[in-house]
Every structure is written in C-alpha cells, then in structure tokens.
Amino acid sequence: MAKITLDNLAHSYLPNPTGEDDYALKELNHDWLDGEAYALLGSSGCGKSTLLNIISGLLHPSQGRILFNDRDVTMAPTTQRNIAQVFQFPVVYDTMTVRDNLAFPLRNRGSDPAYIRDRVQQIAHMIGMEETLDRKARGLTADAKQKISLGRGMVREDVNALLFDEPLTVIDPHMKWELRTQLKSLHHEFGHTMIYVTHDQTEALTFADKVVVMYDGRVVQMGTPQELFETPEHTFVGYFIGSPGMNVMDAQVSGDKAVVGGTEISLGKAFGTPAGKVELGVRPEFISLSAGEAGLPVTIKRVEDVGRHKIVRADLQGTEINVIVEEGENISPDMNRIVFDTAGVNVYADSWRVAPKVA
Amino acid sequence: MNKTVNQKAWFLILPVLVLVAFSAVIPLMTVVNYSVQDTFGKNEFFWAGLEWFEEMLGSQRMWDALGRQITFSAIILAIEIPLGIFVALNMPKKGFWASLCLVLMSLPLLIPWNVVGTIWQIFGRVDIGLLGHTLAAMGIDYNYTQNPTAAWITVIVMDVWHWTSLVALLAYAGLQSIPDAYYQAAKIDQANRWKVFRFIELPKIMGVLMIAILLRFMDSFMIYTEPFVVTGGGPGNATTFLSIDLVKMALGQFDLGPAAAFSIMYYLVILLVSYVFYTVMTNLDKRDGH
C-alpha cells in the first residue's frame, strides 16, 4: 500500500513531440493518497489507460516522475513496483486450472504453499468460483474468465496499488453490480489504494471515494461524486456526468445578472465580468418549466418518460435544453418558459468554471 | 424453409471428378494393378496375388530403408520444431526488421528442391565447395561421398536449412496473434521468461505447431529430390530413404510388382500417421471449443 505521486508527468507516443497536441497525456501533478479508491473517468482516447500503464510501469513516461511513497520508480520495471492490474479483456492462463491461475502470482513470488492454498480458497469464495477451482480455465465463459482475472489481481495482499482498466466491460449487467460491490467491500477490508479506469459514470460514482475526470489528456476535475455533480469545474465534467448531462448555453454575464438570448435573468451570486467565451451550465435537475412571463422562452420538442422521472427535450434558440420533471407533475402545452434554481447555476469562461465572488 | 432439390447439380462437380480421376485415382489403380501381377515384359501379365506384398514384408532392404526413413524424420522434427519456435520467438515483432526477417525466412522455401540439392552438393564438396574445403582445411575428416556420418549430417543440415523457416513462419504467425495484455499480465504476475513461454506462448501456438509438425513429417517422410541430388542415396545405402529405394526398384531394376506393393504400403503408412495427427489436432480444437 502506498501513496502514489505524479510529478510533472506527461507522455507522448511520438518520439519527438513538439506541440501540446502531440501529448496523449498532458503535464500532470497529482497525489493518489494511500488507501483511497479512485475512479478515473473519461471518454475513450482521453489518456486514462495511458496514465494507468505509466503507473503500472508498462509504459515509461516521456517526462516527469512517479513516486511510490516518495521513492522514485519512474524507470523501475513493473515487477519491482508490486502492483496488481486487471485488464479490459480477460487474461487467463488457458492450460492451467482455475486454482493454478489464482495461485500463479503468489507462486511466482515464492509464497508459502499452505498460505497459497488458504488464500486461493478465500479469493475463490469472493469471486464465487469455488466449485470450478479444479477445472481448466480454457473454455470458461468470458465473465468467468474475467472473474479469474479479477481474482488474480486481488490475490496478493501486499500490493502497492490495485489498478483496474475497465474490468467489467465484458461482464453481464447483474454480475457487474455484484462484482463492483465486492471490490468495494474488499477495499474497505484491506484498504488498498485502488485506481479504477472506466468510461461508465455509474461505475465510477458507485465505486470510488474520489472520481478523477479526464478530458483530452488532462485531468479536469477531481472530487467526490457530489462535487462533480454540483460544481463541475469544466463543461466536459458537467456534460459527461449526469443523465442527461448539464445544459450549457452561451451567455453574457455581468455581476449577478446574465443575458441569455436577449433575456436577462438573475444568478443570485455575483461573478464579476468573466472574459473569454462565457457560458452558463445548469443541470436538468435545477431547471423547472413554467407558464408565466418569467424565465427563458423555450419550445418543447418532446417528453421522454424514463420511469422515475420525465425528461423534457426543449429548444432554446437553437440550443437543446434538457429538463427533468418529477413523475407526478403535469406538463401542459402552454409551458413555454424555463426557470433556473440559482443554487444550481454555474458560470464558465472558456469551458472552465468561474467561482462566484464572495459577498 | 424447403430446400430446393436439383439433381442436375451433380454435374457441377464433374470437372473435379475427372481431374481427380486422371491425377490420382487412375494412376493409383494402375499401381494396385501392378502390385498383384507379375510381368516378364512384352506386356504380358500373370496374376500373383499377395506374393509381392509378402516378399516386401520379408525384405530386409525395405525394413532398412524404413528404419533410415524414420530416423531421418525423427531427427529433422526434433531439430526443426524447437529451432523454428526459437527463431520465431526472437524475430522482431514489427517494423522494418520484421519485414526483412520475413523475406529472408521465406527465401529458402522458394527454392526448388533440386536446386537446394545442387547448392548443398557443391557447397559440401571437398575440392571446390566452401563448406567442404573449409572443413578439410581445418583438418576435419568430412567427405559426404565416402563417409556415411558426413552424408547424414549434410542431408540433415540441408533439410534444416530448407525447412526450419516454414516452422518459424507458422509459429511467428501464432505468436503475433497473442494480445499485448497477456504479456503485461505476465509481467504483473511476475512470471519469468520460461513461464511466459510455457503458459502463454506455447498454448497459443499449439494449433499452428501441430500443422507444422504434420507438414514437416509428411514432407520429410516422402523426401526424395534433395538427398538424391546430393548423395544419390550413398555412400552405399547410407542415405537411401524409402522413396529413393522405391525409385531404384521401380525404374532402376524395373521390378514393377514389388515396387508397386512397396508403394502401396508406403502410402498406407503415411495415411495412417496423417490420420493420427488429424485426430489429435481436431481433439485439440474440440478442447478449445467448449
């Protein structure tokens, strides 16, 4: 178990990177605290797997350093870092039995046979594969194989960190839930530092204490699920987290007033006069429909009933706006205005959040 | 859904039937015909029954040739398969050097058999050959025309030179299909080089390896041209393998009956061994299947 420090880290797959665009992973300073469970969330190609492979030592960064408990391991090979990693697609040793698969990392490190036997039994119980322990891994289903991979990742108790690279992609939905819960309880039990890469926000938010959102090779925000939901630091975070994501609309902001499409609304807080491309970000949960004269004029396009609530798709002068309406509420045809709850309005300048001025 | 029945479709396979008849069935039947008859020339034939088969089975000459043949096939398999795997493991995975290696490796496979024979025949000659002359100059008693051991070594080294790249290319193709994640997982599991080979690489190339073994066995068991060109089956009968002996018997001595009986038994042996290989391979596939 260890604290992992990334110091000025950056990586490019090109031999001679010139501009910022050549970097798959842009300069990054970050501490992964000992014993925390992190989720690394982002769309494909945002650099999250690159980052994971640098931490595990499968890839050496183009610049910067990685420290495990303040010891420089930047150039240390994977075997010296004592980490466990589970990959997106199941990696099992086909010709071995399930038992041998699980015991493999321990045997390679010369653990005591009696300990290996107990530990393997324990892990098999955890992944629910006690009955198949003596079967050959060849020919098992994809999710059984992935469970073996997970088990092999968890079998060592002394690892510095456990890394997961979208491990549940090939698993059936109901199994996903179960395995994620098991991973979480495992984390509580042993307190390993865990880093879990995923592009699935539900997975990230349910698994982790802290979610790290990456976008275009950069960490755009790190925070608890609640922070990501209430105060997205970047429009991408707002858009990527939430279903549907945050509404973003062009605006002119001055003090505690904003002008959106010619209509002035109050923001409740003062923001000064932010420079650059100014946008308002409001989550669908903080918007309500109204039939009055107040608010922004919209045209309702359609209403989708997803069971626990309704999603209203509306048009605000060419910008699509999503509004979440409680199941019980009625939507009438004369509702042509939207009103924001000012607690949920964020202001963005060039995609980055502007903090309100404290009065 | 009803299947359309059209018996005229049988005509579509007629060209293939004719081709196979002329290229395989009719010649084979001629051999069968010879094997049960005796002839004294003038196109006169007499029924001989299984006499030739009995004679061949009791013939020391045939058993000796079979022994040499099996020894030869076993030796070249024992060298070419591990060597081919070793070469494949050490070939570059991608880039310019990988392409260059592939081209270099395929070159021996493109050379006609008798040219391979000629190359080694000259290469090994003590008077003008680079290999033979060098060895002689170093004081090593190497003369494949007089020394049986030298003749064997020459024929085996020639076959290894000619065919190891086939095994290497097949194994290389198998190795290329292993996803990187397997190697990464092995690093994380702290598996050593031998374990990576034993538990990741070998299981993944087992399928193509079986094909390589089958191809190399069949080809080496039927080898004729190269040893014939280099040693002519000598010195004495030291490198007279089955097919060389067969040609001597059929065309040299014109013993059509015994030679035909010999051919049929030769054919059955190859068929039997290939069948065993085939069964083993399909069983391997089945094991993968479920």
UniProtKB/TrEMBL annotation, chain A:
<dbReference type="InterPro" id="IPR047641">
    <property type="entry name" value="ABC_transpr_MalK/UgpC-like"/>
</dbReference>
<comment type="similarity">
    <text>Belongs to the ABC transporter superfamily.</text>
</comment>
<dbReference type="InterPro" id="IPR003593">
    <property type="entry name" value="AAA+_ATPase"/>
</dbReference>
<keyword id="KW-0067">ATP-binding</keyword>
<feature type="domain" description="ABC transporter">
    <location>
        <begin position="4"/>
        <end position="241"/>
    </location>
</feature>
<keyword id="KW-1003">Cell membrane</keyword>
<dbReference type="InterPro" id="IPR012340">
    <property type="entry name" value="NA-bd_OB-fold"/>
</dbReference>
<dbReference type="Pfam" id="PF17912">
    <property type="entry name" value="OB_MalK"/>
</dbReference>
<dbReference type="InterPro" id="IPR003439">
    <property type="entry name" value="ABC_transporter-like_ATP-bd"/>
</dbReference>
<dbReference type="GO" id="GO:0015408">
    <property type="term" value="F:ABC-type ferric iron transporter activity"/>
</dbReference>
<dbReference type="GO" id="GO:0055052">
    <property type="term" value="C:ATP-binding cassette (ABC) transporter complex, substrate-binding subunit-containing"/>
</dbReference>
<protein>
    <submittedName>
        <fullName>Carbohydrate ABC transporter ATP-binding protein, CUT1 family (TC 3.A.1.1.-)</fullName>
    </submittedName>
</protein>
<dbReference type="InterPro" id="IPR040582">
    <property type="entry name" value="OB_MalK-like"/>
</dbReference>
<dbReference type="InterPro" id="IPR027417">
    <property type="entry name" value="P-loop_NTPase"/>
</dbReference>
<keyword id="KW-0813">Transport</keyword>
<keyword id="KW-0547">Nucleotide-binding</keyword>
<dbReference type="GO" id="GO:0016887">
    <property type="term" value="F:ATP hydrolysis activity"/>
</dbReference>
<dbReference type="InterPro" id="IPR015853">
    <property type="entry name" value="ABC_transpr_FbpC"/>
</dbReference>
<keyword id="KW-0472">Membrane</keyword>
<dbReference type="GO" id="GO:0005524">
    <property type="term" value="F:ATP binding"/>
</dbReference>
<dbReference type="Pfam" id="PF00005">
    <property type="entry name" value="ABC_tran"/>
</dbReference>
<dbReference type="InterPro" id="IPR008995">
    <property type="entry name" value="Mo/tungstate-bd_C_term_dom"/>
</dbReference>
UniProtKB/TrEMBL annotation, chain B:
<dbReference type="Pfam" id="PF00528">
    <property type="entry name" value="BPD_transp_1"/>
</dbReference>
<feature type="transmembrane region" description="Helical">
    <location>
        <begin position="196"/>
        <end position="218"/>
    </location>
</feature>
<keyword id="KW-0812">Transmembrane</keyword>
<keyword id="KW-0472">Membrane</keyword>
<feature type="domain" description="ABC transmembrane type-1">
    <location>
        <begin position="66"/>
        <end position="277"/>
    </location>
</feature>
<feature type="transmembrane region" description="Helical">
    <location>
        <begin position="96"/>
        <end position="123"/>
    </location>
</feature>
<comment type="similarity">
    <text>Belongs to the binding-protein-dependent transport system permease family.</text>
</comment>
<feature type="transmembrane region" description="Helical">
    <location>
        <begin position="150"/>
        <end position="175"/>
    </location>
</feature>
<protein>
    <submittedName>
        <fullName>Carbohydrate ABC transporter membrane protein 1, CUT1 family</fullName>
    </submittedName>
</protein>
<feature type="transmembrane region" description="Helical">
    <location>
        <begin position="12"/>
        <end position="36"/>
    </location>
</feature>
<dbReference type="InterPro" id="IPR052730">
    <property type="entry name" value="Sugar_ABC_transporter"/>
</dbReference>
<dbReference type="InterPro" id="IPR000515">
    <property type="entry name" value="MetI-like"/>
</dbReference>
<dbReference type="GO" id="GO:0055085">
    <property type="term" value="P:transmembrane transport"/>
</dbReference>
<dbReference type="GO" id="GO:0005886">
    <property type="term" value="C:plasma membrane"/>
</dbReference>
<keyword id="KW-1133">Transmembrane helix</keyword>
<feature type="transmembrane region" description="Helical">
    <location>
        <begin position="259"/>
        <end position="278"/>
    </location>
</feature>
<feature type="transmembrane region" description="Helical">
    <location>
        <begin position="70"/>
        <end position="89"/>
    </location>
</feature>
<keyword id="KW-0813">Transport</keyword>
<dbReference type="InterPro" id="IPR035906">
    <property type="entry name" value="MetI-like_sf"/>
</dbReference>
